[in-house]
Amino acid sequence: MKKIFLWLFCGVAVFGCRQQTQPGEVWSKERANEWYQKQEWPRGCNFTPSTAVNQLEMWQAETFDPTTIDRELGWAEDLGFNCMRVFLHHLAWQSDQEGFKKRVEQYLQIADRHGIKTMFVFFDDCWLPTYQTGKQPNPKPGAHNSGWLKDPGDLIFEKPEETTKILEAYVKDIIRTYKDDKRILLWDLYNEPGKDYELKSLPLLKNVFAWAREVNPSQPLSVCLWKKKYVELNDFQLANVDVITYHTYNPAPEQQHAIDTLKRYGRPIICTEYMARPFGSTFQEVMPILKRENIGAINWGLVAGKTNTNFAWGKAMPEVDEPPVWFHDILRRDGTPYSQEEVDFIKSLCK
After folding, report:
1. N or C: which end of the chain has fewer CB within 10 A?
2. pLDDT tens-place string over residues 86-99
3. Residues 156, 161, 167, 168, Cα dihedral to 10°
4. What are phi and psi of 271, to 5 degrees?
5. Where are the beta strands (DSSP E) in the chain?
6. How many CB atoms are closer than 10 A to CB 8?
7. Distance (Å, whole) CA 163 – CA 100
8. CA–CA separation, 284 vs 350, rounded Å?
9. Cα angle at 213 between 84 and 30, to 5 degrees?
10. What's 122's DSSP letter?
11. How far apart, in whole angstroms, are the C-alpha atoms of residue 289 and residue 291?
């Protein structure tokens, strides 16, 4: 969602795996692969309804929009998608715990009606470092993700002890509530750790794995690989994930190289961010590779809305309603496609 990433993993150790898996331990490769074999090929989007500028606007009571969610997930179902990656935010939980969980349940019911499983994301090191409840800022015209929020962002450094206690309670509460729920595909604990913070993110990364393992959900745990230079973060992730997830917005040759490299680890693999048309990462070029290799295919964006992710990173175009070449996203708010040819192609692979 932020840079062109290429996974090489030169010099990263290949971690062994225990044959037996005890509660609270990393799943064995055998258990992880047995789990993946039972799943239909995961394909779908990173999903935020078009009426939400960020995670808080999606989940707060005042702006939670089940009508739009239902309509847009219906469009996803029509494309043949069966999985959405959805970002939560701890502040929405902290300010209204029971209400937040009711809205999560409502979302899951809607998604399930459309045959869609969910990958919930807890933490995120990308975009705005501070936030508050209440009315969220209007999107900046033509600017990619102008309102997206980090979680926990700067707060973990300003009030580390207090924030850590809140985050622990939040993670354990949500996972415990849904630890055996078949509507949850996996738990994506932390999006792109290290972005802006580098190794300052490692303590929280370690903590969130420990908290999730303590609850011991029936669904696997993962954190995306996304930046080769963060060796210490990558090593920890590869040693602790049940299922490997990764991001790359590179074209087909580099995508294939990333897959070939990650296969060395002997675990199921899901690409949880791809598809940036100007970079050559397109559905027509990349999605067939992911299907052939049985790699989960989760692109960024479904309906172009308040996140403005059909506009490119760092190239605001306030003078136009939509860019001539969309960066992410597939559909307009009325459900019409950016490209009918592209939609027909997606359907041909998914159905």
Report:
1. C
2. 999 999 999 999 99
3. 140
4. -85, 110
5. 43-46, 83-87, 117-124, 184-191, 221-222, 244-247, 269-273, 296-300
6. 11
7. 19
8. 13
9. 75
10. E
11. 5
Task: Check if the beta carbon of residue 298 is closer than 8 Å to that of residue 119.
Answer: yes
Chain segment 2-56, per-residue pLDDT in tens: 444 444 443 343 333 333 456 689 999 999 999 999 999 999 999 999 999 999 9
Looking at residue 30, its amino acid is E
The pTM is what?
Answer: 0.94
- In eight-state DSSP terms, residue 12 is P
Q: With H, G, I as helix, E, B as strand and everything else as coil, classify residue 86.
A: strand
CA distance linking residue 107 with residue 198, whole number of Å:
33
CA distance 58 to 192: 20
Asked whether the beta carbons of 187 and 222 are under 8 A apart, the reply is yes
Q: What angle do CA 133, 136, 140 make, to 5 degrees?
A: 155
For the chain, count helices (H), then strands (E): 12, 8
Phi and psi based region of residue 156 (left: phi greater than 0; alpha: psi -120 to 50; beta: remaining)? alpha
Q: Strand, helix or coil at 175?
A: helix
The Cα 183–Cα 324 span in angstroms is: 37
Residue type, 159: K
Residues in the chain: 351
Cα distance between residue 6 and residue 9, in whole Å? 9
